[in-house]
Records
---
Amino acid sequence: MGFVFRSRAKEEKAPGADKATVTDSHQPRHPEAPKGRPTPKRSVAQSQRRSVANTTMSRKEAAKRQREERRAALERQRQALASGDERYLPARDKGPVRRFARDFVDSRFHIAEWFLPMAVVILVLSMVQVAQLQNIALLLWLVVIVMIVLDSVVTGVRLKKSLAERFPDENRRGAVAYALMRTLQMRRLRLPKPQVKRGERP
């Protein structure tokens, strides 16, 4: 009988003990009591800081690598404009159609390529306070404009016909305008550099 009473006494005390344990968990922790989680070691904290620093350096290295690649691409493009290397030319200059258009223009003499020098001469003559020279300058200006227009029309018609014969299945859109804009530049200043001589058939 004594054993049964002791067992019941333990069972009645057990819920109270559990309740006390739950109640105590909500009480504020004493300052001198141990923390609920261990403080990270110094080596762990240092490794975390090191990983953050490595991430920052990786971003800097990636940005530096991108700048270097961009400079290398620009240098390749500059060399291609001088040599005519199709692999690294800008998109507007790539392709057999654009190359033929350039060669077609570069193999001929065009009045438009001397437009800027002639315009400077005409401007100087028009500034001289002599009526006869001003009249000559005006006449020269009209003659130059008419000759450039006629030369551009003839060049455009011939180029369009040649492109249709050589590249019937290629996209020829904009090639004639591209070539006519090239005629306005002096031959030695054209980019990509001319790859054919005057009189040489493209």
Note: Confidence is low (pLDDT under 50) at residues 1-27, 30-35.
---
Amino acid sequence: MTEVTDFSAQMTRIAGEMRKQSDDTETAVRAMTKYAVDAIPGAEYASVTLVTNGVVETPVIIGDLGGEADELQRELGEGPCIRAAVNDVTVWIDDMLVDERWPRFAAEAADIGIRSMACFFLYIDGDDFGALNLHSTRPHAFPSEARLLGELFAAHAATAFGAIQEKQQLRAALSSRDIIGQAKGMIMERYKLDANGAFALLARLSQDTNTKLVDVAAQIVVAGPESS
């Protein structure tokens, strides 16, 4: 229990660092995956699997064999990473040579040197599903303690991702507000309108051209005062 408690404290610290240091989700995912390999016993390689509308992608790979294992699953359309991502479960293979759930994948994974895996549900974002996958060249590399630590890791990582996405959304909202404010100021200056009148003109241009308000504002700002 002490090991789990210490690991949870470590993950809280790591999640906090990810939130403070990462300006984008891709950077955070890569950092988290590297942390997982370093922190979870048995892990030699790692990858992140994303499933979006049935399309399987691997945006992050730590170690060549981790990428090769994910490529096999994309080619075969089966495997533990996809199951973990879509079904919100932890999935593991103790030994590729005896596992019967995904026979084609297990046989080919063993051929490239992967003997055991542990896959953890990571997050759902709209239609996107994700899983964190750990790989080992040794059979039975992930006992119950390692799987518990992996689940804690994935839970903390999901929290960090949520905070990073909120930060990105806030930054985008503030940027949009600034652009709209600039466009309003240019319209007010050129047409001698008050703030409400300038915004109404922007809104009408947006509606008439079927263009987002912020995009109309950006066009006005980029074109300069003479265009407004």
Note: The helical segments are 2-21, 25-39, 64-76, 80-87, 103-112, 144-191, 195-209, 213-223.
---
Amino acid sequence: MPRGRYSLHDPHDHTPLGEEHFHCAPGPSGWRYVSQTTTPSGDPAGSVDLALDDLGRPIRLELHAGNWQVRGAALDGVTWVRTDPTGTRATEGNVPAHAFTGTSPAFLIATSRLLRLTPGSPATRVRLVAFTDPVLAPRTLDQSWALVNSEAHATDNGPLTVDEYQVSALDTGEQHVVHIAGDVVLAAPGIELESLESPPSAWAP
């Protein structure tokens, strides 16, 4: 069960945004990721709880940021309920999208698992609902994912396969690279893996 810490920063000007302390593990029906986020000063900022089924679909998502909360799942596309800080009212949303995304590295792993790309295959388009910190406002976006390289690296615990993805935002044309090993993000814009207490988990075939 990988456990570790990511540092988060603004991908454009590198302003520190805080840290995400996480653990994740495959289970009998899929994969689960749980984390606590902190501000740059170390104060609690929120949490992420994401569970996928064995096909990579989000069967449960719970996000907290400040006093805002989102609960969602793959249902008729993706469906969610967003609760305001006072807790007096909630707004529901539904979009014909494939999955969710946001600032957490969990969403990069989830999208890569959902698409199951192979090196050299054509880029695949995916529609996602992003929840934007700090108020978890929903926004629908389209991305293109391509697995451009998959390379095995020797480690003390055996070979570690690192997948390199090129991700393109279809509304702006902006492109960036994401490196993932198993169920851990090694590097991505705004994300750095600072510590890892155990090796990434390998996905079951």
Note: The chain has a mean pLDDT of 93.
